[in-house]
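2 proteins. here.
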Amino acid sequence: MKTRSSKTALIQPVILCGGSGTRLWPASRKSMPKQFLPLLGKRSMLQNITQYVSDPSQFKSALFVTNEDFEFLIKRQLVEAGLRAGNFVLEPEGRNTAPAIVLAALSALRADSQACLLVLPSDHVIGSPAAFHDMVQVGARAARDGALVTFGMKALSAETGYGYIQRDAPLGFGENCYSVGRFIEKPELSKAEQLVDDGDYYWNSGMFLFSANRYLEEVQKFEPEMFDTCKKAFEKGSKSNGTLRPDRKAFKRSKSISIDYAVMEKTRNAVVVAADIGWSDVGSWPSFSDQQSPDEDGNVVQGDVLLEDCSDTCVYSNNRLITAIGLDGHVIIDTPDALLVAPKERAQDVKEIVASLQLESRKEADSHKKVHRPWGTYEGLDVGESHQVKHIVVYPGEKLSLQYHHHRSEHWVVVAGTAEVTVGETVQQLSANQSVYIPAEAVHRLYNPGTEPVHLIEVQVGNYLGEDDIVRLEDVYGRIDNNSSSMTRIEPAKRGISQDAG
């Protein structure tokens, strides 16, 4: 049997799906960060980056490194975009990029002892897919020769939010391929201006390409304790159906460190491929604005917006009519439960707002009004002392857990679709404009057997509405704590729309 040459081997994309995206708050939040949002078109950034590495003649199915909360969301977005299913590494806790890529490398080597990894953040924009593919092919030649490749983006302006890479001597792997002179962390503005004027410095894109074996060799050399901890987490973790769940205790002991600090700034085998692919990390609202075509006054608007005598202003709304008069150089970002207004030069300070909200335990810091679950979504509509109202959407073929509540009753009114509802021993089909009453202590479940989403209004009534009053008896998504009989306990919710359902 002929063995496939490593020179023609398929590249293994590794897509990193962590991060909270707080610099794009309030649109991007911890529970739904920017990579999952259709901010710059109909598709999310995750869907776009996965599309760019979907050619089966060049790439294997993507390996997504994420957490358990996002697994179902990624799978759904792949289906919606008509993309190939991928494999998963589900981190129990984020420990930065170097440990995450160790787990990805170990996972890839199970299937291919010569695996070559293309590591990509899921939340970046690439304006020229063709230039991206050319860049990757140059990097692949260097990686298969033992190099650890990073990709430097043409520095179009003096940015203080990016690291920089200095190119050194040209190498023979292809056009714009160089040895690395040095890495520079995020500089002050005056230093950034000098680097751009020099012409030998490129923005550090956070994209990498290397042999899985070479990466692990370098990690063992420079961060041996981190490597050993990740290897134990890998070996003791569970592996099934293309999904790795590392051992929680072992992985949480890993050092939290980026690949740049752990390996790239120390290795003698670093190579930079310089490119201009229309790249942006969309790390702020001004950079979001820069990705779009402004009107004749320099304004960028998305949604139902009316501006009068405004210039260089960015307005984003997916909720309601937004109007503004006489603004210059501002951002207005509106969501159903939070509004941000700031001068563009202060837009980076949104992280301070998020930090303040977190200190006050405000749910708006991390969660949207619409909450995504494996089976669908729900959105709080109203809340009072002894009631709350939700709009629930259950996707085709999905079902809520079999559950009951001690302290509240529920009324379900179907407004669209067909629902199969179980209450006690009774199973019935409900269509639009039909309802069911679920008394406290009654075991119940909802299943969508149809091909269209089920929409229903849920009215909860009771003297306590916290989500630790959900007792799950059976759940197809594995959300039952096996260490506590049949109950899943959640911390009691503060007064307000509760942050779980189903």
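next one coming up
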Amino acid sequence: MKIATWNINECVGITTNLDNQETADVINTKNIDEIIDKINEYNFDVICFQEYPTYINEKISLTDMIINKTNLKYFVENNTYNSFLFDGGKVGVSIFSKYEIKDSYKILFFNPKLVKQSSNGDIYHSFDKGIIKAVIEIDGNDYTIITGHAIAFATFGKNEFDHPESYKPLENLINEYINDNLIVLWDFNSEKLFDLIPSVKGKVTDSINGPTTKDYYERRWEVQMDYILINDKLKKTDIYKIDNFSDHYIMAAKLLKI
């Protein structure tokens, strides 16, 4: 099975922070086309997206494009906040699969309700960030897929250890399904995953273990924010770091059931 995780930065292909947010007047269709092309080129069985713009506008549906132009016909989405970059846009996380999604549900990271004023006086609040758990079946075996996108605490002058409770819903979910064929693909917004969710240390392994980002606006440059975690029922046979328009690389792996 070939799986991937990709923070697509709302398809805009730029690095933004609270002081340079701009509403996009023109949709970057080249970037949208690249999403379709990458899916088809690498023939993913499952891909998880973060900063996924479920609704861009009334004319463009990225979801419709993916299911119509790729082999990923099944999906589940968790739209949790309004886009700063597209008027009326909704953003969140999603899972797309070649295989039927037998079961799914959605929860949220804990939101500490952070507030910051930008240099031009605009007031911003921390988003509700989503988590999805889904089950697919391949060759008679069920696989539990979990994806999510944690809060970017640096945006608000904080760090993730100021609010470790934010990660508790995800930690609990991993522990609940640790005996399944478990795959966790996410943008954790931290380099210290196992310090924040210590109860999963030793139960899952990180298939990436290296930088996954490019130019972060927090000036952390190339760091690991994205993870592919598997338990001892699976093993990694290959890993891919794929360049693209976003400030995150596509991180993909081939997995084999043991």
